[in-house]
Amino acid sequence: xxxxxxxxxxxxxxxxxxxxxxxxxxxxxxxxxxxxxxxxxxxxxxxxxxxxxxxxxxxxxxxxxxxxxxxxxxxxxxxxxxxxxxxxxxxxxxxxxxxxxxxxxxxxxxxxxxxxxxxxxxxxxxxxxxxxxxxxxxxxxxxxxxxxxxxxxxxxxxxxxxxxxxxxxxxxxxxxxxxxxxxxxxxxxxxxxxxxxxxxxxxxxxxxxxxxxxxxxxxxxxxxxxxxxxxxxxxxxxxxxxxxxxxxxxxxxxxxxxxxxxxxxxxxxxxxxxxxxxxxxxxxxxxxxxxxxxxxxxxxxxxxxxxxxxxxxxxxxxxxxxxxxxxxxxxxxxxxxxxxxxxxxxxxxxxxxx
Length: 354
Fold this sequence. Notes:
The chain has helices at 8-11, 13-16, 44-47, 52-69, 105-119, 122-128, 144-149, 189-201, 210-214, 314-321, 336-353; strands spanning 24-25, 37-42, 75-83, 94-98, 100-104, 139-143, 152-153, 158-160, 163-167, 169-174, 226-227, 230-233, 240-243, 246-247, 258-259, 269-270. By secondary structure, it is an alpha+beta fold. Helix 4 crosses helix 8, helix 5 runs antiparallel to helix 6 (122-128) and helix 6 (122-128) packs across helix 10.
């Protein structure tokens, strides 16, 4: 079955739908280790649904991975809702609106180093050590969840009519296309839910400002959108490469662009270059707009596969790279080279089993 495409206009809500924040660095020593907490709110569109039990269970199960995997001592507030009917079907599987903030490049990258060394985050440290070969800009636009994971004071500011309080993100799921959500949908709910949670945390759509660049407006000489007078990139743009030592920041559909944490020497996953999807989602090396093989949660266009995040998922490395710390293993710090080798081996095994 053909994947349901999510329009770029919908995805741009992640960037322009929430106010830009000014954030201040919090002083303090290393943070106590405990689980990251995603706090879901279920809107009335869910609680009044005949399928409320299934929908809430699917969301809770998708959230469990993050709560059990990452130790950043923050709570991420997300409002969940559903949309779609027989007479008015949605044009998407899922969409998200993320609260974002702006921070000087130097402050954001300094926080990456401080967090990596304090929490023995090898992926984050590896990426930091190669920033000189990556994309650079005057400022970074990141989600408030990511900024708090790095120790900044950045409360969520997204609001939703009928839901009290402010949120780091609002996630809307389709009742037309997701199995068990009230319609005749056949798409598995878990990869869609986790795809959108990843975006609220800071990868996927909000991980790059290329969607903003593609929408028009004023750009600087590097093609970066100018926001509040300054050239701006996203957290994953720091690790976006066209070749070893050569960064990639372009909306060209034929460009080479991949996620790397060692200056472009190792391609962890290919970025999508199809402008009808998010540029910070995954694409395919031979056809940038197609799902990866094997399919991944953060593919720009869903394959329909029933998949879920695991410790070996490229999304986990991407989240680590922007400041999310995994539950520590019994051994001491694992070198990035070993981590990447293990990741590549796991991917090969997954491909053979597909």
